[in-house]
Amino acid sequence: MSELSVNHLLGIKYLNKDDIKLIFETADHFKEVINRPIKKVPSLRDITIANLFFENSTRTKLSFELAEKRLSADVINFSASQSSVKKGETLIDTVNNILSMKVDMVVMRHPNPGASVFLSQHVNARIINAGDGAHEHPTQALLDSYSIRERLGEVKGKKVVIVGDILHSRVALSNIFALQLQGAEVMVCGPKTLLPKYIDKLGVKVETNLLKALNWCDVANMLRVQNERMEVNYFPSTREYTQQYGVTMDVLNSLKKEITIMHPGPINRGVEITSEVADSNQAIILNQVENGVAVRMAIIYLLASKIKQ
């Protein structure tokens, strides 16, 4: 298979196993490229990509921008906080105005779940979902799986626990879909108040005891507590959360085996993991960042090749 089964990357739930395999094989090639002295390839010299971020983002936005530039695409950056959206312009109008500048692809982060799907139905460009509300964040899940594959050889058969604020996390949902599609076992772990009510319908194990979860898993993906999405308190205090769900070196050393620690960032050091854990050999957090560029290059390249047809 040499092309994706989809025309947009809207969510992991629209992909199949072969799509993920193709993205990873393409990312392997680009990972080699970004480790060369000259890190650019002319693949997308005639493609224009608009990055539309209606929510703040540092790492995802930088990662996409770097991926686009490594592929030699023309890049337009659009930040909603400085735009006509503030004056009441609709999403469709905003995007159509940008598309009238002859843009081929739109990378969009938006606070409303389903915004990228809505956009794909109304505008004539390839859409990549860079996070929609607390719904999906497909490129993060793909780079997470790619990083597990790189560290442990394959994703199939591995036991992965996602720890923390599952309720407000688009990373958790996309990761669950991606890991299950590749044949991994998935568990979620956190305080009951931060686990969604529908979680058991997703075919994942649920555990509220951190030590039990860590002793079960091969990989622990630590999520931060998303205070900015919370209107009410979901747990008594940060200190209490850290005591129950924070990973320290003492916790890791008490386990029966060595596990791999991941984090989608930004890290609240000293809350979900200590600095010592984040900077240890068991953590692959910086590998995730590097892999994010290669995986996003692969996705952009594969979707762009469908424009040229």
UniProtKB/TrEMBL annotation:
| The enzyme's E.C. designation | 2.1.3.2
Concerning Pfam families, the annotation shows: OTCace (PF00185), OTCace_N (PF02729)
* Catalytic activity field: carbamoyl phosphate + L-aspartate = N-carbamoyl-L-aspartate + phosphate + H(+)
List each copy of the Aspartate/ornithine carbamoyltransferase Asp/Orn-binding domain by range.
Answer: 156-302
Query: Membrane spanning segments where?
Result: none
Q: Which BP terms from GO are recorded?
A: 'de novo' pyrimidine nucleobase biosynthetic process; 'de novo' UMP biosynthetic process; amino acid metabolic process
Q: What class of enzyme is it?
A: transferase
Swiss-Prot/TrEMBL keywords: Pyrimidine biosynthesis, Transferase
* GO MF annotation list: amino acid binding; aspartate carbamoyltransferase activity
Domain (Aspartate/ornithine carbamoyltransferase carbamoyl-P binding) ranges: 8-150
Q: So where does carbamoyl phosphate get bound? A: 59-60, 109, 137, 140, 265-266
The record lists L-aspartate as bound by 87, 170, 224
Pathway per the UniProt entry = Pyrimidine metabolism; UMP biosynthesis via de novo pathway; (S)-dihydroorotate from bicarbonate: step 2/3
Q: How does it assemble?
A: Heterododecamer (2C3:3R2) of six catalytic PyrB chains organized as two trimers (C3), and six regulatory PyrI chains organized as three dimers (R2).
Q: Which NCBIfam families match?
A: asp_carb_tr (TIGR00670), PRK00856.1 (NF002032)
- Family the entry assigns: Belongs to the aspartate/ornithine carbamoyltransferase superfamily. ATCase family.
Task: State the protein's purpose.
Answer: Catalyzes the condensation of carbamoyl phosphate and aspartate to form carbamoyl aspartate and inorganic phosphate, the committed step in the de novo pyrimidine nucleotide biosynthesis pathway.
- What's the name of the protein? Aspartate carbamoyltransferase
Organism (species)? Bizionia echini
